[in-house]
Amino acid sequence: MRCSKCSVENREGRKFCAECGAALNVSCLSCGTENEPAEKFCGECGVALAGNAQAGSAQAPLARPIAPQIRVMPEQPQIVSPPGGERKTDAIEGERKTVTALFADLKGSTELMADLDPEEARAIIDPALKVMIEAALRYDGYVVQSTGDGIFALFGAPAAYEDHPQRALYAALQIQQQLREYGGRRGTQGEAALQARVGVNTGEVVVRTVETGGKVEYTPIGHTANLASRLQTMAPAGSIVTSEYTRKLCEGYFELRELGRKTVKGLSVPINIYEVIGLGSLRSHFELSARRGLTRFVGREAELAQLNRDFAMARSGRGQIAAIVADAGTGKSRLVYEFKATIPDECKLLEAYSVSHGKASPWLPVLELLRGYFALLDADDEATRRQKIRAALTALDGSFTDALPYLWNLLSIPEEPDPLAQMDAQIKRQRTIEALKRIALRESFNQPVVIIFEDLHWIDSETQALLDLMAGSIANARVLMLVNYRPEYRHEWGNKSYYSQLRLDALNSGAAGEMLTALLGDNPELGSLKRLIIERTEGNPFFIEEMLQALFDEGVLGRNGVVKIARPFSQVRLPLTVQGILAARIDRQPREHKELLQTLAVIGRESRLDLIRQIVPTAQPQLHRMLAELQSSEFIYEQPAFPQAEFVFKHALTQEVAYNSMLVEQRKALHERAGQALESMFPDQLDEHAGELARHYSSSDNVSKGVKYLERAGQQAMRHSAHLEAINYLQLGLDFLMKLPETRERERQELALQAALGPSLMETRGDSAPEVEAVYGRIAELGESTGQTQHVFGAKGGLFLNRMNRGQFEPRTR
Q: Tens digits of per-residue pLDDT, 584-608?
């Protein structure tokens, strides 16, 4: 069974492609038509589809008459109708996501179809609609709906992608390019061209499944999609218009032109909008960092020295494979960049990189490498490109001319008639790979060769096959094959004696501080901010850079010769670029793993195994298996503890992203379940767990228990002289209490909280602080109204101390 998305052959009976995870279509045995996995009868000839029950998937058909191969994403939930007619659903309640919405429609289609028969209109519109849908799916978009002469697509949902804004604009450019080609063909036939308008916007939405009349739709709700729709109506025919927020996330990756401030229906103030002109010069996060200005290279000196030792061995004729493995943002590309600067001029450097949407583009990194190797330019025509390749191969080795048809075919510039047109695809593929290997090894006879492939976690299967062949062929060649990838990538080279791996961890606090000093200077007033950033990012260099950029963008930091704090801030906001990386990692997990991760995020940075068992309604063997798999994926690690093991998030930011992806009501329900579980587990030790209980119940809708445990936690903190902590608990308890209706009981609860708050305020702010006067004044009022006179006397004592220390004395009366 061939996957229609990545073209990889899969064995019969598979439900999903083993290479890319897409659901496999079912071929009709009668007419050969490709049908959607969930379809029971062929849409072309009506014959029952054999094996449908085995090949079914959780997908629903989309726009079948237009493009049978087009389908919704595998993550699409399914409504199941069991026997007896009772409907059950595993549809998600909803979750918060940051997405990019794309609206596209044909300009003037109503006028075009006014005088046409419906079938004639369909013959014109369907090819254009197919172009739009295929462009969205090409970049892993989710087509929410077809609007008849246009589409509404989401990027970043159901599955998150760290570069969803760029994916949406790549899709938009492809739509416009292919519609221009379609319009050109119509023009040669004397027919009117079709033009589309596209609007794109990025922001937060709630996505959920909605069932209408037995049909399940996965849709977003929120302003983000509405604004994208408005932008589409404002776009000139044949253009793409995007918002300010999307521009910030995509600037440099695309060329944009400012259209000025425009009034948008439904918005009270005009907004800046931009037209997307074409591709920009940037292709990766690292290139963006380099354009901003690279920071000082710190904390990686040992790793750079190791790469130089590997290269020295390769230059002596002992080929080497060096792999740099690290989490996103840890500095893989920067280390490669610094190493490249040490390569002597007499060595040959061949380099390529993968992009996050590259699995859908066979050979993408190899094509980039070949264009650089043969010096092919965009301005070159096909004949010029073929001549450049012929000249380079002849100069390298005259016997290599047999490889020319394979290289020309790979670069889509075959000579006519194409001698490979009738060749078996697998044979052609293998000979192409062999030709590429021969070129690299022959180059190593002339000079040492460094072959660099970056971001293998996004690599396509064809490029992977080339790397596998190269890895087994360079042992006695003057070749260093340098690769980098994230931990989830797998290969089969680890058992080779000439393979070495460098594992990059985040920067330690000293190196992270050195990096921040290089970026911000050594202004003493920035010390607390630097510590906060190091704590939040845990030393990840990319996260540090992005958080600093966000602080400058928001006006928290200003630069006027030196960097200073320009306005107060309460916390360092998580930038969308960082959130996208972490959310994409989480969304790659199976649903039950993701839900468990979200539950752990609610419990806290650390989660006791016995508490997890109380909250998660899963059989223990399955729960233990899922926890082990989350450990294997390096989301959490097990921390030995007595009497129960604890599981700790490896990165605090992962916990934050998992937590924030849940709807507020989902979080509240889980917090209450966690509080109830703690109460049942420790009925005689509630004070020992008062802080946990206060956090969970104050994050739920159970106001009375929230107030109860906030007061207990505050009292407990006071007993340990942790007065700042006590103030936080008690003040939160007062705020939470205001959710209850005004009653005598609420007054009594407020009195208890205020009475506990007063002494801690005196300890931390001093007897003369205005806050002390306010609290003791309120205690006196509540004591009078509730009849608790003992508090009135205490309050008057507190007020006396406060006024005396401020030099305020009431006149003595007779």
A: 999 999 999 999 999 999 999 999 9
